Amino acid sequence: MNSQLKKIMDNAENIVFFGGAGVSTESNIPDFRGSEGLYQKQTYPYPAEVMLSSDFFYDHTRSFYDFYFHEMIYPDALPNAAHRALAALERQGKLKAVITQNIDGLHQMAGSTQVLELHGSVHRNRCLRCHHFLDLAGMQANRDAQGIPRCPVCGGLMKPEVVLYGEGLDMQVLHAAVTAIRACDTLIVGGTSLVVYPAAGLLHDFAGENLVLINKDRTDMDARATLVLHEPIAQVLAPWAVD
Q1: Distance CA 193, CA 170 (A)
Q2: Where does the chain bind Zn(2+) (predicted)?
Q3: Where would you tag: which of 14, 77, 105, 243 has the fewest CB atoms within 10 A of its CB?
Q4: pTM of the model
Q5: Is the pLDDT of residue 35 over 60?
Q6: 119 catalytically annotated
C-alpha cells in the first residue's frame, strides 16, 4: 500500500473517481490507445475511430455491428480490484461518485451505485423507431440474419446508448460530473491518458485539496497532481477492495 495515498484516503471526506479504459484492462477488456489496444488492430477495412462513428453506424450498419459485437462486447468480463475498491469506498461513505469513460458496466456489477457514464453503456439499447428498450442479452438474442439487432416489438433498428464519434455527450451526465468534481476534496483519476475531450477537460473544474493520478503512462496533467503513480490501477487500489 502506498503510504502517501493511504494518508490522502484516510483524510478525505468527499472523493470522486474519474476513470478510463485502463480501469478495465485488468478485467481483460482491451484499451484503445495501448500497444495492444483497439486502435492498433488492422483486421478491419477501416480504423476503429471510423467504425465507431455515428455516420458509419447509419451507413454501414452490418459492418458496424460486426465490429461492435466482436471488439466492444465482453459479456464474461468481471470487476477487478479497482472496481471493488471503489464500491467499498462508496459503501464507507467516502466516495461520492464514479465518473467513467467506460461502457462496460463493471462499476455497477462491483456494487457502485453513483456512476456517471460519460460515454453511455452497452447494457442500454433503444429502438430507433418505437424506443423499446433492450439489455445486452436482448440485443444478442434479437439479431437478424445479417447480425443486426432488431426490435422485437416493431422490427426497427436497435442502437446502443453509447456515444459514438460524431455524437455529443449527454449534457445531464456531464453537468452532474462537473458538479461532483467541483464539490470533492479529493479527485482520483485512473486508467486514462487524458487526451479525449471534453471528458479530459473535467479536471479543470477540480479545486479541491488532492489530485491523484494513477496511470501506467504519464499524462499532461502529471505536473498538477499531488500524487502520481505510474502503476496498474487495480494493483494500487487493491488494499481498499474490502470494507
Answers
A1: 21
A2: 127, 130, 151, 154
A3: 243
A4: 0.93
A5: no
A6: yes
